[in-house]
Structure formats: structure tokens, C-alpha cells
Amino acid sequence: MSDHNLIGPFVRRFLLEELVADRNLTTNTQKSYRDTIRLLFGFVADRHATDPTRVTVEQVDATVVRSFLVHLEQERGNSISTRNQRLAALHAVITRTVVKAAENVPSLRDKPVSPHTIRHTTAVHLLRAGVDINTIRAWLGHVSLETTNRYAEIDLEMKAQALDTCAVSGPDSTPRPSPNWHTDSELMSFLASL
Question: Count of CB atoms within 10 A of residue 129's CB?
Fold first, then answer.
């Protein structure tokens, strides 16, 4: 692995250039971003049996971020608002990092990665995993269930699976018997008399 794939230098630039020089964020906000990154790097390093300073851009994908957020809430006992604050920090870091990393990592050049992409991917994966839509709504911080339903409406893979479950088998499938009302002459007479 070459050093140009390491995420650390990109994050260092983000913390120094974006947070301090460009946006002039408060010290507490800077520390919050720092703590989020430290927690993420430790989490990724544990999963990949590596040192936190050797975490690569490729190792921090949507699946890892989802797992990290679950880890924060379930294993570290963070509240939903703390988890969402960490997610917001990651959105900012990832957006800046992807832009900078794409200059060095060819596989990122053609991929449209943004905070929305990560959020959308997370919601769709949760939906596909069978997580209740209302739970996803709360997890994403949506006020209205209608907003979250957009993820269900546009998931073509789930639509295809639903259609497959309704599909009639091939030509050798057994024909379904006619409903009883087709052969019940009394019922048919009654209906004809109405």
C-alpha cells in the first residue's frame, strides 16, 4: 500500500485548512470534529487490524460509516443526537477528503460521492435489510415519514424483488382452479337477477 492512499494527510489538511483557516470554527467545534475522526480511525483500524495512522481512503466506505454509527449508538451508548452530530462531521470530512483524494486515487475520480450519497446509501441498505421505515426516519432525523418514503419509492431492486414474488411461474405451472362462483349456478342466477 502506498502512502498516497492514506486518509490521514487529507484529514489533517481538512482540520487545518477547512476548519481553522477557511471556516474559522470555534475550538469546541474543531475538537468535536477531531474526536469524531479519532473514533472513526480507531474503529476502522480495529476492523482491518491495522494502526489508525495507516487507514486508507478505500477502507472508509458507506458500509464502514454505517457500522461506525451503529457502534457509536449501541456499543458506546451515544444518544441519537450525538450520533447525528458525528455523522454531520463525517459528511464534511468525507466530502472534502473525496475531492482531494480523487486527485490521487483513480477509483474515486468517476464516483459521485457526497454526504447525500452516503446518507442515501445508508437509508437504502437499512431498508433492504428489513429495518422498519419509521426507524429509518428517526435515524435520518426526518420529521415526516413522507421524506423517508422517497428511499423506498426509488429503490428499483426492491421493486423488482416485489414483482418477482408476484410473478406467475412458467408455462408448465399448474393452472389455478376456477373460483367456485363460476360454477355455482344459483349464485350466477342470483347475480343475473339483480
Answer: 9
Q: Any alpha helices (H) in 102-168, and if so which ranges?
A: 106-109, 115-128, 133-140, 145-153, 156-166
DSSP, collapsed to helix, strand or coil, labels residue 6 as strand
Separation between Cα atoms, residue 5 and residue 98, nearest integer Å: 11
How distant, in Å, are the alpha carbons of 59, 104, 179 from that of 84? 21, 30, 54
Looking at residue 54, the DSSP 8-state letter turns out to be G
Residue with cell 487507514: 55
Q: Is 153 helix (H, G, I), strand (E, B) or coil?
A: helix
pTM: 0.54
Out of 22-31, 53-62, 73-82, 131-140, give the one with best mean pLDDT.
73-82
Q: Is 41 exposed, middle or buried (0-12, 13-18, 19+ CB in 10 A)?
A: buried
Which phi and psi angles does 56 have, rounded to 5°?
Answer: -105, 165
**What is the distance between the alpha carbons of residues 5 and 162, in angstroms, rounded to a whole number?**
40
CA atoms within 13 A on the CB side of 143: 0
What is the Cα 4 distance to its own chain's centre? Answer: 27
Res 130: pLDDT: 80
Residue type, 106: P
Question: Looking at residue 57, what is its pLDDT?
Answer: 77
Q: Are 148 and 125 in contact (CB under 8 A)?
A: no
